[in-house]
Amino acid sequence: MDVEKEMIIILTSDRGLAGGLNVNLFREILRMEGKKSIYVAIGKKATNFVSKTGGELVASFASEEKSPLELARTLRKIAIDSFLERQVSKVKIIYPHFESTMKQVPRWVNLLPIELETIDTNQIPDTSYQLQNLLFEPNVDGILEDILPHHILTEIYQTILEAKASEHSARMIAMKNATDAAGDLIDDLTLAYNQARQEAITKELLDITTAQKAFE
């Protein structure tokens, strides 16, 4: 296994007009870049970014090409296959995390290998006294083998939904800002037009007055 190689799945939009949503994501990738990486690009913006920066692109999809769940299943297969075949030592996702309507920030999620440190044990009730009497069928390994793919699917699906929410919010704010800016521009142009019109009327009145005095 090339321990230095990792897979980075990038979630972006297909189109612009979303403020700094995609740009902030790309800055974070460039800031964290150090290890040898291969990329899976979701969204035309991500595909263009990898192409322009000379990265190794192994797969790309338009963000609207598949439903969120179908896309999550596809990404799960790519991630698990690449990891189990020892093509990469780590699989990560970067996406625009939805914090609020006004704020979306780049966030990394480590998919593989699964790190137990990321699990909040404070949310898990203490049932250790019960485990000694539990039987796992067929066995613990078999259960984990079935559960872990579902866990990975859930993680990916969650990031896709958050990326969608972030995109819609960022685009809504960008359009509002553009509308407000257009309104301010119209107000400025209207004021300039009225001033020019007033100056023209004043000049005409002066010309008429001057001409009238010339005939007196």
Automatic annotation (TrEMBL):
Molecular function terms, GO-annotated: proton-transporting ATP synthase activity, rotational mechanism
Family: Belongs to the ATPase gamma chain family.
Any one GO CC term of the record: proton-transporting ATP synthase complex
Its biological purpose: Produces ATP from ADP in the presence of a proton gradient across the membrane. The gamma chain is believed to be important in regulating ATPase activity and the flow of protons through the CF(0) complex.
Keyword entries, A-Z: ATP synthesis, CF(1), Hydrogen ion transport, Ion transport, Membrane, Transport
Predominant cellular place of this UniProt entry's protein: membrane
Topology of this chain in the membrane: Peripheral membrane protein
Secretion signal span: none
InterPro entries: ATP_synth_F1_ATPase_gsu, ATP_synth_F1_gsu
Cellular localization per UniProt: Membrane
Protein's name in the database: ATP synthase F1 subunit gamma
UniProt xrefs under Pfam families: ATP-synt (PF00231)
Domain of life: Bacteria
